[in-house]
Design a protein that fits this description.
With 224 residues, the chain is of the alpha/beta class. The chain is built from eight helices and six strands. It has a single domain, classed as Spore Coat Polysaccharide Biosynthesis Protein SpsA, Chain A (Alpha-Beta Complex), CATH 3.90.550.10. It has a six-stranded mixed sheet with strand order 2-1-3-5-4-6, sandwiched between helices. It starts with 5 loop residues before the first strand and ends in an 11-residue tail after the last helix.
C-alpha cells in the first residue's frame, strides 16, 4: 500500500473552543479524550497528518473553512486527502488504511454518520473542485447525497463505509455509549458521568417545577 502521496486532515475545534460551542463539554474531559483517541488512531497509519482547528482554519462559514483546509493540504503537495473529525469515537485505523487503498485505485470513499452527515471523506486532488465544494449545503442532512452526486458525475467508483454515531449534541451521548467497547474505557466513563450529571440536573429542575405548580394542600376539606 503506497501512502506517501496521501495525507490525513483532522478538522475539528480546539478543546477550549469546543467548550464554547458545545455546552455539554463544559467542565469535563470529553473534548480532550476525543482528540487523544483520534490522534492515536491516525498515528497508527504512519501517514502524514495535519490538525486544523479554528486557529488555522480560514473562512466565514463551515463550508468555506472545511474546503479551504482540504485545499491547503493539497497545496502542500499531496495527491490524496482523507478528512475526518474528532467526534466519531469508533472510527478506526482500518477505515483509514482502507481509504488509502481506495484512493490508490482511483476511487473515492465516504463514511456516513447516522445523522445524515459523514465522518470520513477520501478524495483525490484531481477530483476536488474548490468552488463546488464551497457551494454544498454543509451542516445539513443533504450533504452526503450532494457529495455522492458530484462524485458520480465524475464517473468515479464510490465506496461507502459503515454508518457510525458522532457526538454533536448531548442527545448523541447515549447512542454513542451503547456502541463503545472496553478499549474506550476513558471515553465510556466520561460519557457515563455526563449522562448521570444531566439526569440529576433534570430531576432537580422537574422537582422544582413540581413544587412551583402544585398548590399546597391544607389540612381541611376533601383531598385534591
Amino acid at each position: 500500500m503506497t501512502a506517501t502521496n496521501t495525507a490525513i486532515l483532522i478538522f475539528s475545534l480546539s478543546d477550549d473552543e469546543a467548550v464554547k460551542n458545545k455546552s455539554f463539554y463544559y467542565k469535563n474531559n470529553l473534548s480532550q479524550i476525543l482528540n487523544a483517541n483520534t490522534l492515536k488512531t491516525v498515528k497508527k497509519t504512519n501517514v502524514d497528518f495535519f490538525h486544523y482547528t479554528e486557529k488555522n482554519q480560514q473562512g466565514n462559514t463551515f463550508g468555506e473553512r472545511f474546503t479551504n483546509a482540504i485545499d491547503a493540504v493539497f497545496k502542500k503537495g499531496y495527491d490524496n486527502v482523507i478528512a475526518i473529525g474528532n467526534d466519531t469515537p469508533k472510527i478506526n485505523t482500518k477505515h483509514l488504511t482502507e481509504a488509502i487503498s481506495i484512493l490508490n485505485t482511483n476511487g473515492f470513499a465516504l463514511g456516513p454518520s447516522t445523522d445524515g452527515g459523514f465522518y470520513l471523506i477520501a478524495l483525490q486532488k484531481k477530483h476536488f473542485d474548490k468552488a463546488i465544494f464551497c457551494d454544498f449545503n454543509w451542516k445539513t442532512n443533504k450533504i452526503t447525497k450532494e457529495i455522492k452526486n458530484y462524485i458520480k458525475s465524475k464517473h468515479i467508483t464510490i465506496t461507502t463505509f459503515n454508518y457510525l454515531n458522532d457526538v454533536d449534541s448531548f442527545f448523541d451521548l447515549k447512542s454513542v455509549l451503547k456502541t463503545l467497547s472496553s478499549k474506550f474505557l476513558a471515553l465510556y466513563l466520561e460519557i457515563q458521568k455526563l449522562i448521570q450529571i444531566q439526569s440529576l440536573v433534570t430531576h432537580h429542575i422537574n422537582f422544582s417545577l413540581f413544587q412551583i405548580v402544585t398548590p399546597k394542600i391544607l389540612n381541611k376539606g376533601s383531598p385534591l
